Description:
Belongs to the CinA family. With 417 residues, the chain is of the alpha/beta class. Helices cover 41% and strands 25% of the residues.
Amino acid sequence: xxxxxxxxxxxxxxxxxxxxxxxxxxxxxxxxxxxxxxxxxxxxxxxxxxxxxxxxxxxxxxxxxxxxxxxxxxxxxxxxxxxxxxxxxxxxxxxxxxxxxxxxxxxxxxxxxxxxxxxxxxxxxxxxxxxxxxxxxxxxxxxxxxxxxxxxxxxxxxxxxxxxxxxxxxxxxxxxxxxxxxxxxxxxxxxxxxxxxxxxxxxxxxxxxxxxxxxxxxxxxxxxxxxxxxxxxxxxxxxxxxxxxxxxxxxxxxxxxxxxxxxxxxxxxxxxxxxxxxxxxxxxxxxxxxxxxxxxxxxxxxxxxxxxxxxxxxxxxxxxxxxxxxxxxxxxxxxxxxxxxxxxxxxxxxxxxxxxxxxxxxxxxxxxxxxxxxxxxxxxxxxxxxxxxxxxxxxxxxxxxxxxxxxxxxxxxxxxx
Length: 417
């Protein structure tokens, strides 16, 4: 089964926005076992879009188009695709009703006439409700070909693809795809890949692929078989071997769960409370924790102590410590974590202090030097890191490693196992 991708929008050609949809859809199609040999970007021009779609249909079984489904005059994707497929447009009462409901519940109460073009759908098409916007998605089928139209905003496209399109594409395949994501933290990409080199070199079915992210490495295990049960059975020995090799460094096998979600669940299970004491990360750790629904049950307080004065006043870091060792030091990180837990009455406190740059570094304390502390069960551990990259990347690495250290400290406590 061959799939082709066409992303629509002049703003993509001009570089006004980054085409993240292409990367997302390419990865998802690969996981489904679909072959993708071509993808293209077309501006908001009916003739050029028509030409691209006709070419794609001549060489591919499925064509996915993203963008150009909105209410404005330059949103031409649906009209052009329907013309190429030779299918007339007609108003879909259900889609019209959903558009009315959307505006009723939004800050924009007046529905301009151009919005109703979004309720026009190709006759006989599969209509995909948009739970996050007004433009519905559409699947057209004709002469053994499928054309899938998805809205351009990632916040609309991704939920629609995962909720509806993924299953549709999976059913087109002669084989069922079973895929599991093994998410690893606390180990580098090169180390992880070296540990599974033999598995990669000898893979057939299932296959294994690595994806590196800040602070973690994901391993995608994919198996194909006539049924999901059979495919899952094929993947089981590989998953068992990965657990054997990486143990507690695996924090989840659910690709939809983030490290912070797992940690919040972890804290809830053990009835533990958490405080964060941050300097160079400026509240990024607290933000990731509080992004998780229900975090209020475990998260007590987030302290951003950027200045030395704040460290002294809010975290009781000793003036002599700051003078003798400096704000960026193991000693300061230790006092931040220990005092943060004590002052807020939390079971655990994670602290971060460092130099994120691009200025402020010295030969003794260069940009990228970060100390991360964790106080848990009256024991305080501090780790020294030397991160590389620009300012934002250093802060993101520090945030991820702070969460990893928190998890490690709780896991290491035998009383909590």
